[in-house]
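Hi,

I'm pasting everything inline rather than attaching a file, because the server keeps stripping attachments. The sequence lines come first, and each chain or strand is labelled.
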Amino acid sequence: MLILLDIDGVMLPANSWSKPEILPDGFPMFNSRSIRALHKIITETNASLLLTTSHKNNYTIRQWHSIFKVRGINAEMIDRLASDSLEDSRADEILSWYRTQHIPNEEFVILDDDKRLSELPAHIKNNLVLTSASIGLTDELADNAITILNRQRADSRTNG
Ligand SMILES: [Mg+2]
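And the predicted assembly:
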């Protein structure tokens, strides 16, 4: 089970009026509401993180584990898209992941504030939880994400 995770606009809301604190690891503190929401998804589904954020190649996977842990999120598995966000649109990156890396029947949810993801084909878009860039991930959106992950699990069970 996978969470395709963006960070800007999801864990870091874009509030012009409040700059998040930069922690000693050089990365900003996540929004506390978004931390609780992501923690809830991980606790209830045991999903792994697949980083889609444009920051994904700025740190090693070991450093990412530490970045999340320091901010209160214990993800057992963290990986990142193989593509480069600076060259491809997020939609293209996710499409290419789906075509080449996604394991059939593996449940996933996409957490992102990029509105262009609404143009993804329906079978991928159905797994999208779009955040508001200025608010980020909320408890309500976390529930949507959990519903999506569980719905898929129920579907794959029905399909044998
Ligand atoms: Mg974003």
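The mean pLDDT is 93.

If the labels don't parse on your end, tell me and I'll reformat.
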